[in-house]
């Protein structure tokens, strides 16, 4: 990060706010018990943020946000009711609890309903280094966004227009508590800076961009370098061609490769499995990737983008393998879906945490150098994935590769296959890991996919 982006220490009130939310949670649990609930859980959170957008050297929007939310869930045996509010007045809090209780009294029993098991609650709460407020005012944020966009627009004469640049900063404090006596407190920050540019004219216009993100303002790349990277990506897309339809190796760049893991997560999530709406039903313990391939979940990674010592139900998190030696080791479950499936929670209520995908190759240039002829995908469009069958068909853009070199940009092509086959045909994962996501992985080379272009 450029030293010109100062990150002064803010006046930190987060611990006092957490104390307040903790007291509020305890009061709400007392109200639920008084209302007859056999079990109850409460989530309280406060969020603050600043977002600015500029375009063509002018300020478009400046938005300061401050939100809070309270959600109460009660159980009467195995009947469940939930209600929420943003009003902290005593009568509103009582009305929220009363509404949740009223709903629970009139719902049907659900054998899977209830809090996560008490013995699984988190007991240790290490500092995961997630709290890095950025005390930046609107004027400074605008200056950074303008500098980012100007660097991109000035980088190449073919940049004729802009979709703008933005700076965002936010912080969140939250408390989850339940009638097992568990109370968990979390605080985190998130900051970003990005730019999107337009090159060319008329029907030949192309758009692309770049962004940087992190838990600390100091983790962000320099605004000018972000703008220049956006410009390089945009002009590289000019004068795209079609490609001959056929089966070719396909290399997913790191920023789009993680979408493949997203499809895996959807297929092994508890909700899809107990509804029998997954192409990976009953696949736990089976090999679905090559033997060298693995995915490890690291929920307590310091300064991880999605770290936490407990999940959304208070269950303690721990490092574990999702895929090992190509074998699907487990599903992704909270307590409800686990009970529906006759299994145990994997501490994934609320989703997965940080994922680390194994590598077996060099960086992007190395992977490109090994391709005789094929497609580098840098953009995916559409939602053409069938979660039940695994059939995959998505619009794509990127670059045609000849003899290990980028030959020309490609647009409006379709890449198609079946996710089961695609997972098995992964030949390499590169070391060019994109750190801007909780899914840390590099570029992915698939041995063969159907590529449909405009040429026969």
From TrEMBL:
Where does the Metalloprotease TldD/E central domain start and stop, copy by copy? Answer: 132-238
Domain (Metalloprotease TldD/E C-terminal) spans: 245-453
**Gene3D superfamilies recorded for this chain?**
PmbA/TldD superfamily (3.30.2290.10)
- The UniProt entry's coiled-coil ranges are none
Which Gene Ontology terms of cellular component type are present?
cytosol
Q: Example GO biological process term?
A: proteolysis
- What keywords is this UniProt entry annotated with? Hydrolase, Metalloprotease, Protease
Q: Is DNA-binding one of the keywords? A: no
Record's protein name: Metalloprotease PmbA
Gene designation per UniProt: pmbA
